[in-house]
Amino acid sequence: MDVGLYIAAQGMLAEQVRQDQLANDLANSSTPGYKPDRSTQRSFGDLLLSNQSTGQMIGPLSTGVTINQIVTDTTPVGLHQTGQPLDFAIAGDGYFAVRTPAGVRYTRDGQFSSNAQGLLVDAQGNPVLSQSGATITVGAKGTVPASALGVYNVTGVTKQGYNYFTGTAAGKATGTVKQGELEQSGVDPIQTMVDMMGSLRAYEAGQKTIQTIDETLQKASTEVGTLGGSA
Predict the structure, then answer these.
(1) How far apart are the C-alpha atoms of 35 and 135, rounded to whole Å?
(2) pTM, rounded to two decimals
């Protein structure tokens, strides 16, 4: 394979991953407690070029880039008031815990409600847990004291979808539960749109590079064939 084609293709694949990540972030720009992702790229090893006739070193040639890792930005962001008695937010560090069919998961999304059994549940219908790991009963007036909710310090947090994280609980976190409030999404829609446009331009540049190399190879093939025929 032509090295230029390989480099351009690798760059396009990296931008496809980045586009998917940015599109998902943008779709969750209004999701309470959502934490955006940040992708980082790394270069493959360089090729060291030399003159085949003399052996003289010419210099290195990059062999393309790839997505090194996608890291979730878990930095707490601002809260906004909703006035809803079963909306909760954590000011500072920490996570709410919910019991799912796959085990305990953690979230910053405190948009809760009451189920048919009178338990406090999240948007997926999973019970919210206290600091001791017990379920929480909603009072007769449809309220729950903020002190009833657990605020967990979690290490090794990993995004799992549905605004959930896995990790290892390490005691009570320092954050404070606020009732009638929700944490805003951590996505900056304007910056995300700017990043998407930049990523799209990089992808289009890769396309143009492949088209140019393809046209050059076709032209070279045609000219070689013509020269061979006239000989």
Answers:
(1) 25
(2) 0.77
